[in-house]
């Protein structure tokens, strides 16, 4: 769910001195990367919580979230084909507004979304491990203990150094996809055999005088967590062959594929398991397997689920730690966070910092809906800024051809993302509290860094600052 690959080059280096990334990704590998990045913790862990809010129409919030993501994807497409560089939302924000603090907040919000997403994955990992292997753990303590142990293991792997490759992503995508196809297959076979209750897919849950609309809106704020990840693909722009040409059709195709899978999984789940039962606990899809295929080895599906969410956690913690490291090297976070281990060559202080934040979230927040909802909240705010940035950057022209989204889409995207980030949607107040604490920590670190930099006569550096200078009005 990362959105930024901040340059960590020393201030004295020049663009000419840096080697370019190897362009190895064609359309099929890029498609697998996008699909694999979107699939994961969201649908595996939060289907039950969505059903708990809306009833049988659990598929509808996922569909609405898909539409909002698709509209925002058009904005990303214009920007990534216009500026095919691996810097994501931070680059677009800085080009549009040129205000360092806003760029920092966007970057730090994306970093925080990675930590909350990884913490969500750790809870899902623990719950699925307990149920799939009949460990008999009950209550918050047991799940929290496994979640903390899992996150510690992620930190160890992170410290040792993890070289991500496209081939590894293909394998991980196939595993994640297999688990969801199993659910769809079980649902289809059950429907053909006359099992389950297909009529549930049209049943709305209403609360008081709110009718059916507001429960769907509230559930969409949570379901949106399952659609994030598509924005990570912009970081692959410099490693794609002819990105300005292939990105539009590949990104949109990837979103459509995942959207269809999510709707089919939701229909299969609610057909076999009533919404009340689906919403209990943190392993909704394991219940679907138990109900639709009782002879299917539960441990196999549990292993697939654990593998899928473990991959999400590792990717997000890698992103978060490297982003903290990169911001430190650009003098916008304390320099201690930019230290590299002498032998492992990994940013061990940044890894420790992000892991401690994850520990705190797992221990003191714990609830999957709160963590997943906070991830969606942070990214909805980032997406609002990106949609606005598209309109602001229309005045900036480039020499090469690029994708241009209809003007109405970024306007609708900004309004929709801002709407779903608001408290009027019924979003739990704890999500704002978590996001506020995390961003507050970032602002505090930023203020300390600014004071230290001023005392030392140091200015923020890096390609984002170079872009700001280049685009500044000439007197």
* CATH architecture tag: Up-down Bundle
Low-confidence stretches: 1-22, 463-475
Summarize the biggest pleated sheet.
none
The chain-level structural class is mainly alpha
Radius of gyration: 22 Å
- List how many beta strands DSSP finds: 0
Number of helices: 17
CATH class: Mainly Alpha
Principal-axis shape: globular
Total domain modules? 1
Question: Can you describe this structure in just a few lines?
Answer:
The chain is mostly helical and 475 residues long. It has 17 helices and no strands. Helix 3 (59-82) packs antiparallel against helix 9.
Tell me what the structure shows.
- With 475 residues, the protein is mainly α.
- It has helices spanning 27-38, 41-54, 59-82, 88-97, 100-132, 139-160, 166-192, 213-223, 243-272, 275-278, 284-292, 298-329, 348-364, 368-392, 408-420, 429-456, 463-471.
Summarize the helices and strands and which ones pair or pack:
Layout: H1 27-38, H2 41-54, H3 59-82, H4 88-97, H5 100-132, H6 139-160, H7 166-192, H8 213-223, H9 243-272, H10 275-278, H11 284-292, H12 298-329, H13 348-364, H14 368-392, H15 408-420, H16 429-456, H17 463-471
Helix pairs in contact: 1-7, 1-9, 2-5, 2-8, 3-8, 3-9, 3-14, 3-15, 4-5, 4-14, 4-17, 5-6, 5-12, 5-13, 5-14, 5-16, 6-12, 6-13, 7-9, 7-11, 7-12, 9-11, 12-13, 14-15, 14-16
Supply the key terms.
475 residues, mainly alpha, Amino acid/polyamine transporter I, 0% strand, globular, disordered N terminus, disordered C terminus
């Amino acid at each position: 769910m990362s959105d930024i690959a901040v340059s960590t080059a020393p201030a004295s280096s020049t663009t000419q001195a840096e080697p370019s990334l190897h362009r190895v990704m064609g359309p099929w590998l890029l498609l697998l990367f996008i699909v694999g990045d979107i699939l994961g913790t969201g649908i595996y862990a939060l289907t039950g919580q969505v059903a708990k809010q809306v009833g049988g129409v659990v598929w509808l919030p996922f569909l609405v979230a898909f539409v909002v993501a698709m509209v925002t994807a058009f904005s990303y497409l214009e920007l990534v084909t216009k500026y095919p560089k691996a810097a994501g939302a931070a680059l677009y924000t800085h080009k549009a507004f040129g205000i360092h603090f806003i760029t920092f907040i966007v970057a730090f919000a994306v970093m925080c979304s990675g930590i909350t997403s990884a913490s969500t994955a750790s809870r899902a990992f623990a719950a699925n491990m307990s149920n799939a292997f009949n460990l008999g753990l009950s209550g918050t303590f047991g799940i929290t203990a496994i979640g903390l142990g899992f996150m510690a293991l992620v930190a160890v792997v992170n410290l040792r150094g993890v070289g991500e490759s496209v081939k590894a992503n293909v394998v991980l995508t196939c595993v994640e996809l297999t688990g969801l196809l199993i659910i769809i297959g079980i649902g289809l076979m059950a429907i053909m055999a006359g099992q389950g209750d297909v009529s549930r897919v049209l049943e709305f849950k209403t609360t008081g005088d709110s009718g059916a609309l507001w429960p769907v809106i509230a559930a969409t704020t949570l379901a949106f967590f399952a659609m994030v990840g598509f924005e990570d693909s912009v970081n692959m722009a410099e490693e794609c062959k002819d990105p300005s040409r292939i990105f539009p059709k590949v990104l949109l195709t990837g979103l459509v594929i995942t959207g269809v899978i999510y709707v089919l999984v939701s229909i299969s789940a609610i057909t076999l398991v009533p919404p009340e039962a689906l919403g209990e606990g943190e392993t909704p899809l394991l219940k679907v397997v138990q109900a639709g295929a009782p002879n299917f080895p539960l441990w196999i599906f549990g292993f697939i689920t654990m593998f899928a969410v473990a991959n999400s956690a590792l990717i997000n913690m890698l992103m978060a730690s490297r982003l903290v490291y990169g911001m430190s090297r650009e003098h916008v976070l304390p320099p201690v966070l930019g230290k590299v281990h002498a032998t492992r060559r990994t940013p061990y202080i940044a890894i420790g910092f992000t892991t401690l934040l994850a520990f705190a979230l797992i221990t003191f927040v714990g609830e999957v809906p709160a963590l997943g909802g906070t991830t969606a909240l942070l990214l909805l705010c980032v997406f609002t800024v990106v949609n606005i940035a598209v309109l602001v950057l229309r005045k900036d022209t480039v020499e090469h051809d690029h994708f241009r989204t209809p003007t109405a889409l970024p306007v609708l995207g900004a309004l929709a993302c801002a709407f779903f980030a608001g408290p009027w949607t019924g979003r739990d107040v704890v999500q704002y509290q978590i996001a506020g604490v995390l961003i507050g920590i970032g602002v505090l670190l930023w203020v300390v860094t600014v004071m230290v930099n001023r005392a030392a006569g140091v200015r923020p550096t890096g390609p984002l600052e170079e872009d700001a200078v280049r685009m500044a009005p000439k007197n």
